[in-house]
Amino acid sequence: MTATDALPAETPATGDSTPLLDVRDLKMYFPVKSSGVIRRTVGHVQAVDGVNFQVRAGESLGLVGESGCGKSTTGRLVTRLEKPTDGSVMFEGRDISQIGARELKPLRREIQMIFQDPYGSLNPRHTVGTIIGTPLAIHDILPRKQILPRVQELLEIVGLNPEHYNRYPHEFSGGQRQRIGIARALTLQPKLLVADEPVSALDVSIQAQVINLLQDIQREFNIGFLFIAHDLAVVRHFCPEIAVMYLGKIVEIGERDRIYEHANHPYTQALLSAVPDVGQAAIGGRRERIQLTGDVPSPINPPSGCRFRTRCQFAQEICAKVEPPLLQIGARHKVACHFAGELGHHPAEPVTAPLLGVDRHGDPAPGATPEELPGTDSSYSDSWYDFPGRRIVRADEV
Ligand SMILES: Nc1ncnc2c1ncn2[C@@H]1O[C@H](COP(=O)(O)OP(=O)(O)OP(=O)(O)O)[C@@H](O)[C@H]1O
């Protein structure tokens, strides 16, 4: 057992306090319609397909994956810009996944979103003062004459000149516009911020400044963050916990050190190999970049079994037949792979087969019964699998 398996005191493994956000088995299937006059539903884009995670107050989870894997949709479901097909979004213990517009209005104060494109998300015809101040008026939070001082205070918090409240978005640089977007998101003092690629559109030199600003804000106001990014470099310094998504599913989730130094999923390993400043030890001492072959398959007709198998160098028969469960393999680390293992140490036999009651080919094993698997919901269990010994370790034994 490595030191990183030990439970940090401030992050309980089990839910002994209600998480700010608890996402359970979340699904979003967009209908695909036929062309012609009578537009029938001919299939579904499985954009998000059974996603589980939690965000605690003041903490941040990084959600990472290639374009089209369902990150933005997940963010839009959490903020309820979209209504999920199935599953629940528990915010402070209450399921908000299906509530209507009236109940959503007060919730808009608590959950805010920062978008990738700071220009597209700001109305060019409104002054910065109006953009930042309007939510205060809509939600009737402050008397009219207190709105301007509050707008100026927010501009100062995000590092802009408070006297520039009557300027228009086009008068600011890209980085400054993103600061305006952040000020607008802070206006209502949210408890949760969903930041969807907040720095991807910015110059590299500006990205660090905006990330530092978000980090300062998070600490100062104790805001929970769901930070969406397409690569592992951006979330590295911001998020103590990282989830890696592939084709609508989380394939690996865990504490930052577990993901960067002990990644067990071949997809995470491939993403990590593309991060320039990850130490060689973190990717098993290998220098070369792991090239992913082939394209991301269509989410309308995803591969059977493991969705990553069509691009995975370790895939075997079982991977096409049986979907690997997101199995807990450390105090705060889960992975969904039949051949889970650190780079260079992937097992020859599927580690999941005995747990799932199947043989090495993925066919039902005579007389075997599938095990009840700990930690397959949104929280971490106090017991997990310590491969390759397949021994369940309890937190109090560590
Ligand atoms: N409104 C919609 N109707 C139909 N399909 C959609 C809709 N929104 C998203 N999709 C599809 O769902 C899948 C996931 O999209 P999503 O934008 O969530 O991925 P992403 O990982 O955020 O990608 P990107 O980084 O490019 O935004 C994609 O195949 C996308 O085409």
Task: For the structure shown, list the relevant keywords.
398 residues; alpha/beta; Rossmann fold; 2 domains; 8-stranded mixed β-sheet; 14 strands; elongated; disordered N terminus; binds adenosine-5'-triphosphate; ATP binding; ATP hydrolysis activity; ABC_transporter-like_CS; Dipeptide ABC transporter ATP-binding protein; transport
Report the strand count: 14
Task: Tell me the strand order in the biggest sheet.
Answer: 6-7-8-3-9-10-12-11
Give, in order, the helices and strands. Answer: EEEHEEHEHHHEHEHEEHHHEEHEE
Mean pLDDT: 88
DSSP strand content: 15-25%
Cofactors and ligands present?
Answer: adenosine-5'-triphosphate
What is the correct CATH architecture of the largest domain? 3-Layer(aba) Sandwich
The gross shape turns out to be: elongated
Number of helices: 11
Number of domains: 2
Q: Indicate the CATH topology of the largest domain.
A: Rossmann fold
InterPro entries: AAA+_ATPase, ABC_transp_ATP-bind, ABC_transporter-like_ATP-bd, ABC_transporter-like_CS, Oligopep_ABC_C, P-loop_NTPase
Organism: Nocardioides seonyuensis
Family: Belongs to the ABC transporter superfamily.
Keywords: ATP-binding, Nucleotide-binding, Transport
